[in-house]
Amino acid sequence: MKYTQVKDGLLNSDHPIFKILSSNDAPIWWHSIKSDDSLYIEIRKENYLNVYYRGGCVARIKYNTHRKQFEILTHPKYLERLDTSNPQWYKKKIKNGKTIYEAIYQDSVDWLSSIEKLGELKDNVVKIYSGDNDGEATSEKFIQGELIINYRNKYLDSEFAYRMFDGKRNTIRIDLVKIENGKFVFEELKRIKDGRLLTTDGEPEILTQMGNYEGFILQNQEALTRYYRTLYKAKKKIRPTCSFN
After folding, report:
1. For residue 217, what are the domain limits?
2. 238 and 16 Cβ atoms separated by less than 8 Å
3. Which residues on adjacent β-strands are paired with residue 177?
4. Do residues 187 and 177 lie in contact, with contact meaning Cβ atoms separated by under 8 Å?
5. What is the pLDDT along the chain (245 residues), one digit of tens a residue?
6. In this structure, is residue 5 part of a structural domain?
7. Domain count across the chain
């Protein structure tokens, strides 16, 4: 089975976003993010960053090289903008005969620049996204976030996503990528109650999933190695104190 080939050039460790955020001229909101030990930062393809709290995305950070300015956006629901009838916050669409409201991400600089407002934003993430799961405060994304925060010197990336097959909608999404004994290690995270772990008919879904992941990684091992070496360089620039094993 042939999987999609991972392209080179998905990430540039010399992109201005990494240079600015690693300099003495970094914005106030960036210092606020970096000083909060409960947050973690992931670098994404096409040179932007996501900031997470307990698995929920607190902010997406992009740098517009033409305008020479940052774009810091957050889902409106985390900013207490829940009214889906407001066209400034949500875009109404009809999909498959059903009405849906697509979020219009909002500027969140003021929320990130204030310790008090950042605390409210984090509380909203917990209430809306990463709270109880089946009566347990252990949602998969919450566990993922705890692993990253507690083992920052191991976990290099999370939620790596890529189209699995050319011309198809299937997407590979690897939960965690860590460095161990000088090698990149890919991990899939599942809660014990996840129904994909068991089956009464045929092969459990998790085995099919892991087989596809293995095939994709083996086919793209050289490209993925190059990508993660670049990501490593970029992450060391914005978080120089991180010491990966």
Report:
1. 16-238
2. no
3. 157, 186
4. yes
5. 789 999 999 999 999 999 999 999 999 999 999 999 999 999 999 999 999 999 899 999 999 999 999 999 999 999 999 999 999 999 999 989 999 999 999 999 999 999 999 999 999 999 998 765 444 456 788 889 999 999 999 999 999 999 999 888 889 999 999 999 989 999 998 877 776 776 767 778 888 888 999 999 999 999 999 999 999 999 999 987 777 76
6. no
7. 1
Residue 11 located in a structural domain: no
pTM confidence score = 0.90
Cα angle at 39 between 90 and 25, to 5 degrees?
Answer: 90
Is residue 234 within 8 Å of residue 10, measured between CB atoms? Answer: no
> Is 244 inside any structural domain?
no
Asked if the structure places residue 169 within a domain, the reply is yes
Task: Quote the CA–CA distance of 240 and 243 in Å, as a whole number.
Answer: 8
Sheet holding 183-187, edge to edge: 155-163, 171-180, 183-187
Nearest in space to 219 (alpha carbons), one of 166, 153, 182 = 166
Q: What are the contacts of 176-184 at 24+ separation with CB within 8 A?
A: 176/144, 176/147, 176/148, 177/228, 178/151, 178/154, 179/154, 179/232, 179/244, 179/245, 180/154, 180/245, 181/245, 184/156, 184/224, 184/225, 184/228
∠ at Cα 144 (70, 84), nearest 5°? Answer: 55
Query: What gap in Å lies between CA 162 and CA 190, rounded to an integer?
Result: 19
Q: Could you identify the residue written with the tokens 């204030």?
A: 114
